[in-house]
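Re: weekly structure request thread

Next one in the queue (115 aa):
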Amino acid sequence: MDIQMQKANMLADQVRDFILLVQEKHKQDEGIFHIKLLIEDFKLRVLSDELKRINRFEWDGKYSYYLVKRLKKGFQVIEEYIQGREELYLIHGRLYTINKGLMLLNNGENGDPSE
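Done, posted below.
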């Protein structure tokens, strides 16, 4: 389970870096400001910090999969927002990387995490 723990920590770091990028650039573009509002609405910062905290020393699969499911929900909305918006090209690459990380953790999931 050490691999799953590392995947969760890498995902949490990627989400945190994405949030920092959006916070840096939100004053330059109204589209990025809207993404900042979506990040705050879905509490992605809190979820990524919690994912990192939970998996710091030991793998907690049930709670990690729950957090990943909530992160995925938020990033799906952000992805729908940026589709077709060429001016948000910086966000496309980061979102692709985060979605791959979310898929990696979802592939390891055995059943529904709420069980």
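Residues 111-115 have pLDDT under 50 and may be disordered. The chain has one domain: 2-107.
Next request, please.
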